[in-house]
User: Which sequence fits this backbone?
């Protein structure tokens, strides 16, 4: 087994073990109506009109995937953890929404090029190696005029990515880049936070060679 495969297996075990309690965090489970409404508004404000084909990378237990589907989008959710995917499927079924969930390595998503109009990723990119290469693979999955919605942070623990680190790692094809501060929006997190939290929106444009 290679070093990458060993790392994947260790990460998979960690998130499988966390699946039972993952939704206890307000912004994970979206069980509080105020928090859920805030995330719904955030997604709606940065996505194209429905229906769009959306890939939710690192979907966890599927909370954002379900919101996206309820907004009228066609959603595929991927996560490395089978236990997370099992819970996502159960939650989607209970809500009566059709979402395709798959166990998959987020760093190497196995899809044909130019399939998606939107790629959403929340709190995962910071944990992946070779950020610029990962973002290039993701950009290849976007249709022309498609977009990223990347929700990340740099937390008080010292983990995470600063917004400028992600912007500098974006492929040349990603333009119209905007950074939106989310730290002050306490309704997203179920309470006050003091660390860096943000959303980056970037649109794919065809780069024409001279």
Assistant:
């Amino acid at each position: 087994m290679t070093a990458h495969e060993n790392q994947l297996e260790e990460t998979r075990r960690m998130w499988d073990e966390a699946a039972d309690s993952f939704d206890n965090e307000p912004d994970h489970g979206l069980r509080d109506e105020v928090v859920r409404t805030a995330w719904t508004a955030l997604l709606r404000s940065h996505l194209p009109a429905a229906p769009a084909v959306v890939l939710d990378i690192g979907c966890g237990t599927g909370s954002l995937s379900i919101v996206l589907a309820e907004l009228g989008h066609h959603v595929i959710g991927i996560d490395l953890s089978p236990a997370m995917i099992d819970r996502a499927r159960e939650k989607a079924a209970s809500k009566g929404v059709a979402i395709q969930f798959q166990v998959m390595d987020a760093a190497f998503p196995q899809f044909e090029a130019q399939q998606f109009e939107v790629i959403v990723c929340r709190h995962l990119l910071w944990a992946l190696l070779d950020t610029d290469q990962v973002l290039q693979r993701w950009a290849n999955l976007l249709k022309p005029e498609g977009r990223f919605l990347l929700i990340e942070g740099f937390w008080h623990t010292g983990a995470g990515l600063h917004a400028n680190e992600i912007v500098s790692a974006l492929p040349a094809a990603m333009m119209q880049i905007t950074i939106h501060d989310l730290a002050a929006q306490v309704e997203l997190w179920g309470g006050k936070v003091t660390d860096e939290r943000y959303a980056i929106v970037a649109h794919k444009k065809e780069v024409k060679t001279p």
